[in-house]
Specification:
alpha/beta, 13 helices, D-Maltodextrin-Binding Protein, domain 2, globular, two-stranded antiparallel sheet, 2 domains, 21% strand, 339 residues
Amino acid sequence: MTQGLTCKGLPKRRFIGFLSRLSVLLLVNFLGHGSALAQETYPNHPLKLIVPQPAGGGFDFVGRTLADALAPLLKQPVVVENRTGSGTVVGTDAAAKAAPDGYTLLVGSVSNLALNPALYPALPYDSLRDFEPVGLAVSYSYTLIARKDLPFKSLAELVVYARANPGRLTYASAGNGSGQHVLAAALWHLAKVQLTHVPYRGAQAAYNDLLGGRVDVFFDLSPTARPQVEAGNLLALAVSGAGRSPMHPLVPTIRETGVAALELESWFGLFVPAKTPRLELARLRQDAIAAMKSADVVARFEKAGGRPLALGGEDARLLVKKDVERWGSLIQDAGIKAD
């Protein structure tokens, strides 16, 4: 039996094979063109930036500063959405479960990504598995402040008294599981002293009682503590960072006091759901790091007492992982609870 002939005399089987190979080549070319087109057109509608705390706080300040700087680079609006509830859990979980398409970002911090995993036994998200860092923007140290009539002028003197008088001294926090609570509880645990925790609903209420002499000490972000210290209303005993804070250059770090080998800086940055496509993530990282390094953003962070970071990629991932592991172990050892 003779083979059927087609296309200027080519055998039918060879002609079909030729068409198959041509189809594959056209498909590959189309997919490549589609991928390039997707890269060129992303983003093509507004992005959402979830802030897991109410307007007006540290999360919100960082989020709005970065949204304002990022929008012109992406050529799309970056809309800030304050998603509150259960501390930072509700908003952070919403970001973890958002579509991984490059259009939903999260303001992540030590609080919701490094401390929460150890504080909440049934946390609905996994900080390392569910998120990919876009970049870390800024960090802030805490300052241990005391009522001005406290008879101790240093952290070392306070610890000596606390060791001899367990439970007599009190420390405030902005709530169970807050950064102020965790840092203070970890310090007392490492120093092997017992102070009584007095949780408040927010920092302002804690300041009211500290200024009124009804509570003894309080850890708060250094920029917020600075005005009260400079006015002579409160005493600054130590700062929590690896180095001295420009907000309180004469105040020693916790390590320098010799009380404990402890440091904590509250970093803030941008994160996306872990399965965000590679091309979209690369574009976000490129523009986010450029925004973080811009003169305006650096000036705003420094004016507010922050230390600009602009860490992206592997550097950001390693810092987050280190703090998740370090603080998880410390919180567990100290028996610190969120409620």
